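Hello forum,

I keep getting stuck at the same step: I have a sequence, I want structure tokens, and every attempt I make locally crashes halfway through. Rather than fight my setup again tonight, could one of you with a working pipeline run this one for me? It's a single chain of 175 residues.
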Amino acid sequence: MYKFSVLFFLLIHLTGCSQEKLIDYKSTQDGFSFSYDDSWEKKIIRSRSVFLTKGDEKDGTNFRNNLNVIVQDLSQNLMSLEDYHNLTLQQMQQALGENTVTSDKDVTIGGVNAKELIYTIPKDISKGNFLELKLKQVYLIKNSKAYLITYTAKSKDFAKYLKSANFFFTTFKLL
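Reply #2:
Ran it on my machine without issues. Output:
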């Protein structure tokens, strides 16, 4: 019985230590909230954009996989989600010179209709792309604002951190 108690205690203790702590983030200024695990490092850029990073820089690239939220004011150029989506695809085609979208679908984020794209940015030194990157981007429009939620990773790391990144997407809510 003693051995069983010790093993049970160790199992519970070790399981508890491996779990990451959840952190809630709320931007009353931009009207959104989300949760993320504490393995991501939070940074606020220009007092508005939320930027979370994860992973190491030991490969010499100085690139860290990241999650971010950008809010765009569309009050001077109102458009539907479908119009915004078409413009995004057009701009990607112009910037990348090719279609690298591997997934394009309608989703719901926090009860709001949204679009989800998964695509790659190929390595092309002539365009300043020194790494091959893979992105998951979800965007939605509400109250004349576009909310762009993006997970960017080195292509080789994309699947490794996707589960953690998906938690960020599923907890995103407009206030």
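The domain at 21-174 is CATH 3.40.1000.10 (Protein Transport Mog1p; Chain A). If your local run keeps crashing, start a new thread with the error log.
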